[in-house]
Amino acid sequence: MTGGGGGIEGKSPPRRQPLTAPPLIALIFYDVSGGPFGIEDSVRAGGGALLPLLGFLILPVLWSLPEALITAELASAKTFPKAVFGDVGLVVGAYLIPLLAGIGALPAETAAEWMDGFFSEDGQRIGGPWLRVWIQAAAAMSNMGLFEAEMSSDSFQLLGMAEMGMIPAIFARRYLSQANSGRLL
Question: What is the predominant subcellular site recorded for this chain (predicted)?
Answer without folding.
Answer: membrane
